[in-house]
Design brief:
Strand order of the largest sheet: 1-9-3-6-5
Mean pLDDT: 78
Number of strands: 18
Distance between the termini: 104 Å
CATH architecture of the largest domain: Sandwich
Oligomer: single chain
Strand content: 35-45%
Order of helices and strands: HEEEEEEEEEHEEEHEEEEEE
CATH class of the largest domain: Mainly Beta
Number of domains: 2
CATH topology of the largest domain: Immunoglobulin-like
Largest sheet: 5 strands, mixed
């Protein structure tokens, strides 16, 4: 009798199970796609520079300049003429080779540091180059297609800036009369020279942006020289912004 009861219970459970709806298959998780962050683009590059060709830097004391030597090849780095190389120090002594040479004569002698990443061994590293005139800080990133040459240029002097500001086409200013509103804006065809009030150090230095065709601002490569802001390149509109306030400088005749 007990056996009959167990058989009846089993049949009842089986019948209920057969009436249950079929469950959908478990969802399959999509494959994980890892996003690779792009390598940083060098800053302070002069107009027309590109990876895979020649690179020109305007030397800055507070800047670590990024260069991309070709893996397994050589990259000559020309320093500012008239200087003498004192030392070259690389953080990675095993994956990189370097040598020193020069070209030219007299005051125009240009010192050159040749960097050679060893294929399969070189890793991103830093280099410190000291000369008789200044200190160069480099970040070295080996690439299959790197720069062919790198050249450093002397930063403009205050007298050069003042001379450039007095010449060139004028710009029309649009915006509020802030303490940092430009006194005048000019360009020499390759760089834009923005003269700011002498008190700009107390109010803060604005940031330079260029306006795309859709009106969206993009940061421009610029640096401070005295109370001037020097922007690499010439643009129809340069926007100066400090906080939530901006002033547009429009090139007349652009």
């Amino acid at each position: 009798m007990r056996t009959a009861a167990l058989m009846a219970t089993s049949l009842l459970v089986a019948g209920c199970a057969s009436n249950l709806p079929e469950l959908p298959p478990a969802p399959v998780a999509p494959p994980i796609v890892r996003q690779v962050a792009p390598e940083p683009v060098p800053v302070d590059m002069r107009p027309g520079d590109a990876i895979g060709g020649a690179l020109s830097y305007i030397w800055r004391e507070d800047r670590e300049h990024t260069v991309y030597p070709p893996a397994g090849g050589t990259l000559p780095v020309s320093l500012i003429p008239g200087e003498r190389i004192v030392s070259v120090t690389l953080a990675d002594h095993y994956g990189w080779n370097n040598s020193v040479t020069s070209y030219g004569a007299g005051r125009r002698t240009t010192p050159v540091v040749v960097l050679s990443p060893i294929a399969g061994q070189a890793r991103p590293t830093t280099a410190i180059i000291t000369t008789s005139g200044r200190l160069y800080l480099l970040r070295l990133v080996p690439r299959n297609s790197g720069h062919k040459t790198v050249r450093f240029h002397q930063p403009p002097s205050d007298s050069t800036v003042a001379r450039q500001v007095r010449t060139g086409p004028p710009y029309a200013l649009k915006g509020p009369f802030t303490p940092w509103r430009p006194v005048r804006v000019r360009d020499d065809g390759t760089q834009t020279w923005i003269e700011l009030p002498a008190s700009v150090g107390a109010t803060g230095m604005p940031v330079a942006f260029g306006l795309n065709r859709d009106g969206k601002p993009r940061p421009l490569n610029s640096r401070r020289v005295g109370n001037h802001l020097v922007v690499d390149g010439v643009y129809p509109v340069v926007r100066l912004q400090l906080g939530d306030t901006h002033i547009d400088a429009t090139r007349i005749g652009a």
